[in-house]
# Entry
Amino acid sequence: MPGEYQYPFELRHLAYFREVARQLHFRKAAETLAVAQPALSRSVAQLEAALGVDLLNRTRRKVELTPVGRAFLERIEPLLRGLAAVPADIQALAGGQAGQVRVAFTGLAMATVLPGILREFNRRYPGIRVELNESPTSAQLNSLKTGEIACGFFHPDAATTPGLATRLLLQENNGVLLPADHPQARAKRLRLRDLAGTAFVMFPRAHNPGFYDRVLAAFRAAGVAPRIADEVWPRANAIGLVRAGLGATFMTPSEAKQLPGEVVFRPLDGPTPESRLVLGWRKEASPDPALGAFLVVAGSAG
Amino acid sequence: MPGEYQYPFELRHLAYFREVARQLHFRKAAETLAVAQPALSRSVAQLEAALGVDLLNRTRRKVELTPVGRAFLERIEPLLRGLAAVPADIQALAGGQAGQVRVAFTGLAMATVLPGILREFNRRYPGIRVELNESPTSAQLNSLKTGEIACGFFHPDAATTPGLATRLLLQENNGVLLPADHPQARAKRLRLRDLAGTAFVMFPRAHNPGFYDRVLAAFRAAGVAPRIADEVWPRANAIGLVRAGLGATFMTPSEAKQLPGEVVFRPLDGPTPESRLVLGWRKEASPDPALGAFLVVAGSAG
DNA sequence: GATATTGATACTCACCAGGCATCACAGGAC
DNA sequence: GTCCTGTGATGCCTGGTGAGTATCAATATC
# Structure
């Protein structure tokens, strides 16, 4: 039956036998093990009795392994070594000194807060590996629920998912990113209605319906019919399309700071959609220590 | 310090925890383990205390693994499975139902008793693998001393090596194996002096000086000067050389029975060297059980 | 043959794993 | 709300056993 206690020995027996097998000398092995020699003799004898097998050949003057004893030793040694390493590894894991965090992010996060957080995190927790995956908000919410990711940088919708904790990292009104040769590229400040007729590069609505709808609402408020040219993902490609002159796109000032030339960023006066970036994770009784470490760093950097 | 007892837990703790982690239910796990629930609770609590880490998250209504607990479980499961398999494997080994025997042999053995022994051994001990190596007598004696082989079929010299047990398997006077077109091939019986001038194929003297010298002694007794054409090893090649007409060679009747045509075997009257084949192994306090099984079969077949 | 070395044995003790009884708490039923 | 049931933890006691001390028995060395 699986699960039933099935070991005719304890680790003590195995470790004692191993030491005797190494030294082939009960007294010396007993000293190494910090135990009295009779206790060692009995423990090994018990092990042999439990297995129903002779492991050692004792004359009064010398001890040697039987062939079966040698085979037994070879079998248990790697297992004992494996078990010996477990406590330290687990403690490192629990102390947040080892392990991994799976993190999802959107393009905005990568263009703003994420690089700094990662740099700081790697400095403070070199033992923890961070697994990064760009992923739209909607997919992140799913992955959080299934446990596929430990936390995610995403754009919060109106409805907060229960069981999820979030921390606001960024909240900015969007401006527009224009090709350098756009007619309005000279203007220092713009309003949405100045951009009637300009094609916009968006992302698929399902990825973040909240923001998508705020964009449409801003157009409506400005009395302009939106012209959506392409929907593209991931985010970096949208910037590429703007750079290629295919259209404009919405962008926060923080993100725009990172961009090299050939495109111009202009803030928008009047109605303009707002972007919010949050870091979200599951509320849990015993959070993953590696995640805990990540949250600390992300919090102090935010 | 290597060798010191370094485990903050016993197998019991690990097996108990594993069962609780599987069922996520202390009472059910306790039943499976045939132990009372309080004992199980305390054992797991001890394990957590020893590691200084929370492995389980207990509310009064449900139990779940912490992330660290999951990592711990994943670490110990393969090790526990490995240890669980050890006793049965070792007992099979000790019972001679598994394992391997390294066996060396000379050409004479392979041409006479060895195939039958192997057939019978494989039938009776299908779990034991036999590792075979053709090897001259002198090399076998060395390999026996070093433990490189468990037993060997070889040709005993006058001096028996101490610590070695042997069993005589074959003792026959040699005849000669002649090419089919040899002048004396028609004669039913021969004496050594009839073969004066015939070239003989031998083996390097160092491989079995005892027999080599008995050959020379037989020539001397017959008043014939030996003519050694080639020295070749392994044995099968000598027969090939005879078949090719390059010379004659000494051979026992048992071995000659196995040979197909193009060569003729003739017994020798008068002085003729004697071949002895023995099976030899180290005398040991605790012999390898796989070897023991092999010796039993080889004994009943001999 | 005397001596030293070494593993096994006898005896005792202290510890602790395990059992039983019970508690404390959380959910569900109504 | 109240009761009931199911759950893991706690308190207490006992039997088993691992470990220590003293000693024995056997063998190799001189």
About this structure: The domain at 175-272 of chain A is CATH 3.40.190.10 (D-Maltodextrin-Binding Protein; domain 2).
